[in-house]
Design a protein that fits this description.
Layout (H helix, E strand, L loop, with lengths): L7 H5 L3 H13 L19 H11 L4 H7 L10 H26 L5 H6 L9 H8 L7 H6 L2 H30 L2
Helix pairs in contact: 3-5, 3-9
């Protein structure tokens, strides 16, 4: 059965029964596979603040509704399949960035760090990255958000590797002192 062309705006006004065929088609159709139909581009080419905003958006339970408000009226005129293709594309870009960050920046806390309560910093989220890049100067936070994401990621990765090296080096020195 071929479904009639409708926009995402029209789709949103369908009742649940009317949506069933579209929902099935959206889930399994190649037309709705991730595709950059609006030429959003590579997310790593955005500013640090923009990337962090996208990551925050896709971590929210109300992501879909908020996504609709991120663009102008042009989004609501998209064919329903093109809309979901674009939505999935942006979502895949956010996932890709999160995976890159996890690989480059993550740190498994030691038992001592866990015992000391390192998880208390989780509530600050991206502010920790911004504060690190600003070297603690809150007056630089807005400038950091405007910097190219790739530059900020590189700096965070350099700092992470430097910290890892310093920690490993300190352990070596301590072990040498203990052993003689």
């Amino acid at each position: 059965m071929k479904l009639p062309f409708i926009t995402i705006g029209e789709y949103l006004h369908l009742d649940n029964e009317e949506r069933k065929d579209y929902d099935f088609a959206i889930r399994y159709s190649k037309q709705a596979e991730a595709k950059d139909v609006l030429l959003f581009g590579d997310i790593t080419k955005l500013t640090f603040g923009e990337v962090k905003d996208w990551q925050q958006l896709f971590s929210d339970k109300e992501c879909f509704v908020k996504f609709l408000t991120m663009f102008d009226e042009k989004l609501l005129t998209l064919n329903v399949f093109s809309f979901f293709a674009f939505y999935r594309y942006v979502e895949s870009e956010v996932i890709r960035i999160s995976e890159i960050e996890s690989k480059l920046l993550s740190h498994e806390p030691t038992a001592d760090e866990v015992a000391a309560g390192i998880d208390r910093f989780n509530k600050f989220g991206v502010a920790l990255q911004i504060d690190n890049l600003a070297k603690g100067d809150v007056l630089k936070w807005e400038a950091i958000k405007q910097m190219p994401y790739e530059h900020c990621l590189l700096k965070l990765a350099i700092d992470k590797n430097s910290n890892d090296f310093q920690r490993d080096y300190q352990e070596l020195i301590i072990n040498k002192q203990r052993n003689g």
